[in-house]
Amino acid sequence: MQDEQQPTNPEIKKRTIRSFVVRGGRMTEGQQRAYDANWKTYGLEADQGRIDYQEVFGRESDVVIEVGFGMGASLVEMAKNAPEKDFIGIEVHPPGVAKLMMLAAEAGIQNIRVYCHDAIEVMADCLPQGQASTFQLFFPDPWHKKKHNKRRIVQPLFAQQVANVLKVGGVFHMATDWEPYAEHMLEVMEAQTQYENVAGKNTYHPRPEWRPLTKFEQRGERLGHGVWDLIYSKLA
């Protein structure tokens, strides 16, 4: 992750350190069939450049962006529960993309699209600037070892890149079950002048009822693990 001395121009496109590791990227035959069958309906190609939300979804709506949706169940549930909104998921893990599209197709959901590509490049090259209503980042890799902390996706530059795609009044919603990472997120975001903490300065937000509980989170709750939500609104 680049440090905060790097320029914050919205046309920033690349960085040399990835914020993710592709794990088990090879798909099973079933996953590949699901991917191939549903990509035409739900897939967005990064090399096609900047999209127009109204053209993609055929309407004007509030658009929710989620980075790192895992296997997609919670994002599909959110799209199902909020048919008036449109959702774009960004994930580098092909089996997760295949699963999300399969779940969406089974549920007959039309208000969701997906990129199978690096989020930083999609944000810089593909997403309209200043138009999304919500940006979600749930349970990103915490990179526990101190020497790897620089790989955490929530850094000052990333906060600026999220602000670039959000409209004024749009929200950046994060959640993590790793308290040191929650503290890191809070420290980074409180230093950003283009955001306001919805819950109050230096305060975590209660889990909103509309954020589905993932199996991962439910297991953590049974083990007594905490979860921390942070919600920041973009200022003018």
Automatic annotation (TrEMBL):
Source organism superkingdom: Bacteria
Known role: Catalyzes the formation of N(7)-methylguanine at position 46 (m7G46) in tRNA.
Organism of provenance: Marinomonas communis
Keywords: Methyltransferase, S-adenosyl-L-methionine, Transferase, tRNA processing
Sequence similarity: Belongs to the class I-like SAM-binding methyltransferase superfamily. TrmB family.
GO molecular-function term, one example from the UniProt record: tRNA (guanine(46)-N7)-methyltransferase activity
Keyword S-adenosyl-L-methionine among UniProt keywords: yes
GO cellular component, one term: tRNA methyltransferase complex
Residue numbers binding S-adenosyl-L-methionine: 66, 91, 118, 141
Source taxonomy: Bacteria, Pseudomonadati, Pseudomonadota, Gammaproteobacteria, Oceanospirillales
Signal peptide from the UniProt entry: none
Enzyme Commission number(s) from the entry: 2.1.1.33
Residues involved in substrate binding: 145, 177, 214-217
PANTHER family for this protein: 3-DEOXY-D-MANNO-OCTULOSONIC-ACID TRANSFERASE/TRNA GUANINE-N 7 - -METHYLTRANSFERASE, PENTACOTRIPEPTIDE-REPEAT REGION OF PRORP DOMAIN-CONTAINING PROTEIN
Pathways per UniProt: tRNA modification; N(7)-methylguanine-tRNA biosynthesis
Keyword Nucleotidyltransferase tagged: no
Catalytic activity entry: guanosine(46) in tRNA + S-adenosyl-L-methionine = N(7)-methylguanosine(46) in tRNA + S-adenosyl-L-homocysteine
Protein name, UniProt field: tRNA (guanine-N(7)-)-methyltransferase
Region Interaction with RNA, annotated ranges: 147-152
